[in-house]
Amino acid sequence: MDKKNALRAGALAAGTTLMMLLMSSPALALTRDDGDDPGTGLSVIETLGLYVLLPIGLFAVIAGLVMALDKSHQKKDPTSSNVRTKADAKA
Fold first, then answer.
1. DSSP element (H, E) containing 7
2. Contacts (Cβ under 8 Å, ≥6 apart) of 42
3. What's the pTM?
4. 14, 7 in Cβ contact below 8 A?
5. What pLDDT does 43 receive?
6. DSSP one-letter string for 9-68
């Protein structure tokens, strides 16, 4: 990649990042909006359970089901046992 394209890509990335930061400033507001009714926060245990343990558990269940219901071990190619690798003919 030549320098001109690299400079153009860097300027585009910087401009996009700057615009995203400028547009996201209302998300950092400290005042509440009308109708805003936040609930109680999650404890550390609830957060870990919801965002760490639950995904790991779901992954383990799905992986276990895939391994338990795998049928590939029953499929065998019957012709592979009839193939010889050494040639019988002598020249």
1. helix 3-23
2. 50
3. 0.46
4. no
5. 95
6. HHHHHHHHHHHHHHHTGGGG--SPPTT----PPPPHHHHHIIIIIHHHHHHHHHHHHHHH
